[in-house]
Every structure is written in structure tokens, then in C-alpha cells.
């Protein structure tokens, strides 16, 4: 199971929401489930951030 908090902790170099989306897409190749347990704190995080991350994972 991939947790969003884990992705954020393991990638402190991320500075934008779009960079986070790319990391989630990459990690989706080796994980079966994705849990959104925190809200990303980027200045460019869109209102539909949960949908965008779910779509990136699938």
C-alpha cells in the first residue's frame, strides 16, 4: 500500500504538485493500492487534488 504521506516524506525535494503527480505515477507501477492520508502543501495544489492524484495512480 502506498501512502501519500510516505511519498512526501521520501521525496523532500518536491516543490510542486505536478512533480508529486509524476512521482505517484512512477510509484503506481509497483504498488497495488493508494491511500491519501494527508493534503499536499504546495502553492499550486489544485482544488481537485484528490481526484488528480487518484487518476495519476490508476
Description:
With 58 residues, this protein is mainly alpha-helical. The protein has one domain (2-57). It contains three helices and two strands. The longest helix is centred in the middle third of the chain and has 12 residues, at 17-28. The model has no long low-confidence stretch (mean pLDDT 97).
Helix content: 40-55%
For the largest beta-sheet, the strand count, sense and barrel status come to: 2 strands, parallel
String of helices and strands: EHHEH
The count of β-strands is 2
- The neighbouring-strand order within the major sheet is 1-2
**Could you tell me the strand content as a percent range?**
5-15%
> DSSP helix count?
3
Bulk shape: globular
Q: Termini, distance in Å?
A: 13 Å
> Could you tell me the mean pLDDT?
97
Count of the domains: 1
Uncertain segments are: none
The radius of gyration over CA amounts to: 10 Å
Structural class: mainly alpha
Amino acid at each position: 500500500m502506498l501512502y501519500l504521506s510516505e511519498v512526501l516524506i521520501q521525496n523532500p525535494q518536491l516543490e510542486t504538485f505536478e512533480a508529486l503527480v509524476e512521482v505517484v505515477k512512477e510509484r503506481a507501477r509497483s504498488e497495488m493500492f493508494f491511500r491519501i492520508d494527508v493534503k499536499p502543501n504546495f502553492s499550486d495544489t489544485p482544488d481537485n487534488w484528490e481526484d488528480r492524484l487518484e487518476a495519476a495512480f490508476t
